[in-house]
Amino acid sequence: MENPLDTSSDALQPTTPPLAQGTTADAVNVDSSAGLAPLTDFGQRTDFSQLSAATEAVRRELAKVIVGQHEVVELMLTALLAGGHILLEGVPGVAKTLTAKLLARTLQVSFSRLQFTPDLMPSDVLGTSIFRPQRGEFEFRPGPIFASVVLIDEINRAPAKTQSALFEVMEEHHVTQDGTTYPVPEPFLVLATQNPVEQEGTYRLPEAQLDRFLFKLNVGYPSTEEEVAILQGHHSGFGGVPTEVVRPVLSAHQLADMRQQVRQQHIEPKLLEYIARLVGQTRTHKGLYLGASPRASIALLNGAKALAALRGRDFVTPEDIQYLAPVVLRHRIQLTPEREIEGGTTDDIVKQIMQQIEVPR
Questions:
Q1: I need a labelling partner for 64 at 20 to 30 A (CA). Which of 12, 160, 167, 237 fits?
Q2: pLDDT range class, residue 238, cuts 50, 70, 90
Q3: pTM, rounded to two decimals
């Protein structure tokens, strides 16, 4: 089968859009290294054709196994382009782990999987130093965290001691052991899952760790039509098909180029102020015990840039910010006990805040 995404060096070069009618070739100045297209009255400043082709190839590969979950897939791709970690929360059986594992399979990078349990130790995650008597010195043996994509299943089953081992590597992309710093491979992405309904044998994630996740995605039940499609697939023998049907279609080099394009996205100063006001309002809202930090503002900015690029735009809109506000803020803020007793949710608070703040136009 032919690879839907050409990974040759020639194919990675930005394509130049056709000249507008009445425009001469001499009048066009293209910076091919940055993927910049000529700026006209109606033209885009950045060419996202390669980015669109790559992300569409990833979607097609995931659709070979995953039925529905279009919004979750879009948000996972957004986090991938923004360079942030993802926390997937949902009841058992909604394909959280499967979706994360298949996304990792679409990338031509190293992958490891960790099953968090109550007896897991920090050294089981980060690695440990082993004494070599032949040389009379200690040698560091890297743990499973040293991979580009790390899937942590049931992350809330490990105690706080093990959870704290992730703080440094998730934020700074390196591990410090015995006074020596060891960088993890780039790109580095943590995909974690957790079950929101089970309480026995689980531990609440520390706020400092939750804050290191770019998005928290709620994976819900499929629609009736999607569940019928799942049943039809299993009835026809598709159930149990190995995940090897999903092929790698995106290299680390391509992903680095796309992230560079995302960082160069245009955003108006008034939208920066809008983000700051949205996040700042969480710190004074009477229904919240804990507001979001400036890291949430940065996450919302980077996520909005990535979402705009994913949707083929070279500029951020207020709608991008509003769409991402719940997934960026829901795990970074805490309700007051009174609001929790009333049955409120953090998503409700975020919606209230967005309704109270004037949208820039």
A1: 12
A2: low
A3: 0.80
